[in-house]
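Materials and Methods. Structural model of Coatomer subunit alpha. The 1241-residue sequence of Coatomer subunit alpha from Macrostomum lignano was retrieved and submitted for structure prediction as follows.
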Amino acid sequence: MLSKFESKSARVKGLSFHPKRPWILCSLHNGVIQLWDYRMRTLIEKFDEHEGPVRGIHFHGNQPLFVSGGDDYKIKVWNYKQRKCLFTLLGHLDYIRTTFFHHEYPWILSASDDQTIRVWNWQARTAICVLTGHSHYVMCAQFHPSEDLVVSASLDQTIRVWDISGLRKKNVAPGLGGHDDIGGYRGGGGMQGPGHTDLFGTTDAIVKHVLEGHDRGVNWVMFHPTMPVIVSAADDRQVKLWRMNDSKAWELDTCRGHYNNVSCAIFHPRQELMLSNSEDKSIRVWDMAKRTCVQTFRRDNDRFWILTAHPSLNLFAAGHDNGMVIFKLERERPAYSIHENCLLYVKQKTLRRLDLNTNKDQPVLQLPKKANYTSLTYNPAENAVLLGCRSANPENSTYELHCLPRDATDSAIDAADSKRSSGLTAIWVARNRFAVLDKGHTLAVKNMRNEVSKKFQLANAEEIFYAGTGCLLVKEPDTVSLYDVQQKRALSSVKAAQVRQAIWSADMSNVALISKLTVTLCDRKLATLCTVQESVRIKSAAWDDSGVLLYTTANHIKYLLTSGDNGIIRTLDVPIYLTRVKGTSVYCLDRECVPRVLGIDPTEYRFKMALVNRKYEEVLHMVRHAKLVGQALIAYLQRKGYPEVALHFVKDERTRFGLAVECGNLDAALESARALDDKQCWERLGELALAHGNHQMVEMAYQRTKNFDKLAFLYLISGQLDKLRKMMRIAEIRKDTSGHFQMALLLGDVSERVRVLRACGQTGLAGLTAAAHGLQEAEPGAADDPATGPPTVTPPPNASLLQPPCPLRSQDSNWPLLTVTKDFFEAAMRARGAGGTAGAAAAAVASAGPASAVAAVEVEEAEVGSGWGDDEDDENASKGGAKGEGSDVEDEEGDGWEVDDDLDLPADAGGHDSAAGGGGYVPPVRGPPPRQVWTAGSQLAADHAAAGSWESAMRLLAQQVGVARFEPLKPLFVAAYARSRACLPTLAGSPPLFAAPLRNWKEAGSGGQRGGGGGLPAVGIRLRQLLDRLQTAYGLTTRGNFADAVDRFRQCLLGVLMLVVTSNQEVAEVKQLIEVCRNYIVGLQMELARKALPRTEEIRSAEMACYFTHCDLQPTHTMLTVRSALKILYKLRNFATAAMFARRLLELGPKPEVANETRKILQTCEKNPTDARQLNYDPHNPFDICAASYVPIYRGRPLVKDPLSGACYAPEFAGQLCRVTQCTEIGKDVTGLKISAHQSH
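The predicted structure was written out as tokens:
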């Protein structure tokens, strides 16, 4: 039993599924009716108008209604949309046990302890028929799903089948004469008994069959949905099957197994199964054909009372003493596997193949039995599949191996040579090998004949998943580990609990670990990229071609980026299982295993993906052409720090204003503020413009908001006294006495202050101010004014006047900016507005290199120089927009003053040149950035990588050593670029300074110029570091960790590309290092390939062991290779060759115990110096080893070499990637690696 949802409540006596929505009604013993959303696991509503237990509950099939019946003798009809009871039907005289709607007519069927069954017309709200005949409580009564029949069960130990065709004819047929039809249904019909006849002799309801066979009272009865079969459950602990026809009914069989009263029994809607529950705390599943119990589910403390099935889904619900449980009998997830454009899936008893290109669906294989297959994995090399059957009991879990027919036919063939064994999971690990995990946590590697070739223990392993050739993902209770089958060890692990699926991307670079409610994205080494938690179950997942994971829940298709961004693509009506995502199409299977294709809109996640990957041309194209709308996307751009991107496609002015303020775009903010003309917007614009030093825009914002105090302060701090004086006049006009006096104080205008004081009635203060400043004579008549009179206070004789300082210079222009920054999109939009194209805009900023970000693309030098005069346009625009309210603050400048005319002054006139250093400020001339100097002055790839010019670095490496694949070099490039600059902290709150460390700083030039004349970046990797790594790789080789050793040797080899040396001696040492790494990588990879061979290929294994001894290794490692080859040849009975290796081993000087063993082998071989097997090995003819096929290339034979490592290959491998470096092209004509400025090739 697969439990889907459980609730805790009082005893559940009735249950009903909604036919379409994920809802279920529970009627409780305490009188409450609960409405649950079992998909979201939430309680939607409670209905509590009944008094006492509610036993009957049922949803209407089409209307938003449900009916309930309780121990208060009442039947209530509810509207769940209005959340209220519509009406109550009264008539029963005792407890009501069940209530059901008719599937077609407006009828309700109720069974009661008053020994009657009643049929009600819920539209007319009257009882139209009463069925009497039982002699005890009627425990259940139900309509037939398609015929005019009713079946009832009673504690009188009988089951009655009633024919209600007369009731249908009387109440549903069109009315006669004066009968009124209500809603198309006859509303008449009073309380008529079953024996009542009308004028023509027909009866409303008659007893058609009486079934007797139970020894105690019958609790439940039900019709089969399609067959003339009835199931009943009784207190005699038995479940009985009955069959009927038009003339009679009889007992088919009895199902025994329950230990207490059987409460309920139902038919499975779509399978030949029955379900029953009992007061013995168990639910049993019965096979209708065999009449045997096939499954039993038990609870510890809860008796079961009710059981119901969903009308269309594979869902069941059971009510018990402490709540209810919703469950499935089996998984509905189809078993499928995708390979290229071919989908293999199991439907019923057939394995089918669907071509996604042609949409051709054809059967492939007829499976031996109808089993619940839970997994399917396909091996394209052998054209074989592994089918897994997972059971709740691990001992019953099996797998099947089937070889598929090569030729496609229109009919499925029988699986004749299938192989079946026990095992929890079976996964392919090689071309002709698969791994099986059994119940004892043992992993067995088997061949195509289902024979075990290797077996070892995996402690705590619960499941295995595919992870590429030779590897597996092993699921443990709380972790998932990447396991190497050859080395029998875990390579890495990640914390992830209860993982159910592992979905790999197409290039095997990322994996999605799917659990019940969690998706975890990891890279190839199981480093966690992101994790997403869902509130509903996750059904399936598939990777898009662009590296985006799409996954489905019960009602949504969602996406997840490796950066952690996720969202909803579309909603679903029914759950689906993704198989392939291609463009705007999603290929999937539904629960009926029917292939479907759904359309999606990938614009949103492609836009986010392009933004994360900094593909700005693609982002710009989508901004212009795609329909990107929604506040969620705008919020995403703001949250990710890209408000300037959203600014270019948002149309709402208020939103545009907020984005413009956030990204500091004053022009866009001013445009939106003018369109909105909102006080709050102007205030925010004023704050932003003040922070940017744009005085003209601040002045305009203060004028629009009539914020005269801030405007006056702006004029004061900028030294614009004439405008401040105008503000004083405006304050006088506005009758703002306080502001008027304050501005007069700031201007030092004493007479104005006296006038203000006198105007407001402060004559004493006015006289004192005038006396203190010696203005008695300046105010004629003031002394004679009787209201004023002489000042009452005489200023002290030593008083000093406080005058505001005069500004040295009026700052009426904006703050100067040395540099101007534009983001990619602003530059593109401006280029487009100027008649350019998106391509031209992209080309204008393409030179920024990898160091550029969205808002950090520097403008060219010429544009920076003109930035000092860029404020003129803004100033004119600001002044032009400042007209209106308070427009007398600014006066337009006319042409009446001729102060700008040129004069002929003598050459020896006084004054000095401001540019000479005395007066004005001369901005420094921007020198070339260090990275530009590095790329121009060096031909070393390491210098170009450190400069961030990765394109030129790639071009140099392609020319020098034939690099064709740069993914393995990405960490080296990133590390070189990161080492190329140092961060210097400055004052608190100030941004740090960046410096470029140089390796030739003494000769780099003088004058303080950045980068100097010929500066080159400091060395990031030194030869000593590579030699240290080489010693680590030696140690791994000695310990037998060949795979790790190969990685370390390859790291040393590729590290040479980022190396810079200064002497020819170091160049020679580097060449020797390359040779050592090549020999070890070829030898160790050949040994790993030898160990992966099956046991049957003994000759090939012996040959490769012999070749390994010819790799130029350290003496210690050479002894190990010779000793290994010696043992293999001795076991193969090639005594002549073994004797030669024994002598060679003794010449190397092994340990005494090894030497003694070798001498014994030599003596044995010399007694019979022959070879039992012929080997492709000639030790006397010098040869090189092909690093791809591991066969000897004898002297004189044609060969090609790798330009970096020097590894040898047969001619057919020319043009392929080198197996040693994994990044260079075999046989390419190159100039040779250059790692020193003094190096000569």
